[in-house]
Amino acid sequence: MNLFSKKTRIEEKKIVQSAPKAELVKVVPMKIGTGMGVKSVLKQPWFSERATVLATRGQYVFLVEPTATKPAVREEIERRYGVKVMSVNTVTIKGKTKHFGRKSSTQTGIKKAIITLKAGDKIEIQ
């Protein structure tokens, strides 16, 4: 309210009361990895000597987003490959500092997810 306003308090109350009420809209948050326009949680399969040994036991290793959660990874694997995931273990590897003469640089860290599938399920990775 302005100090030198010509409107009285009664007129202001009428204006405020006559304003239309906004309709309530229910907002449903989207989960990571679902819906259109949302980036996938999985980046790529991880190939190493240990990962190939784990694959024979029904465990697969994937490189995932650093912000990915275990339920989001489980949901993405089940949706993308059509298999039943028994457990998800994650490993976060911190980035290393490398020195080039006087200059130093930091490599980015990574996050891997080790997926254990139900007995009999397999993932075909190209």
List keywords for this structure.
alpha+beta, two-stranded antiparallel sheet, 24% helix, four-stranded antiparallel β-sheet, Alpha-Beta Plaits, 126 residues
Q: List low-pLDDT spans.
A: 22-37
Secondary-structure element sequence? HEHEHEEEE
Instruction: Give the name of the CATH superfamily of the domain at 43-99 and 112-119.
Output: RRM (RNA recognition motif) domain
Structural class: alpha+beta
Q: Under the CATH scheme, which class of the domain at 43-99 and 112-119? A: Alpha Beta
Biggest β-sheet strands, sense, barrel: 4 strands, antiparallel
CATH topology group of the domain at 43-99 and 112-119: Alpha-Beta Plaits
Q: Identify the CATH architecture of the domain at 43-99 and 112-119.
A: 2-Layer Sandwich
Helix content: 10-25%
Gyration radius, rounded:
27 Å
Shape call: flat
- Summed up, the helix count is 3
Mean pLDDT over all positions: 80
The fraction of residues in strands falls at 25-35%
Number of strands: 6
Distance between the termini: 68 Å
Spatial strand arrangement across the major sheet: 1-2-6-3
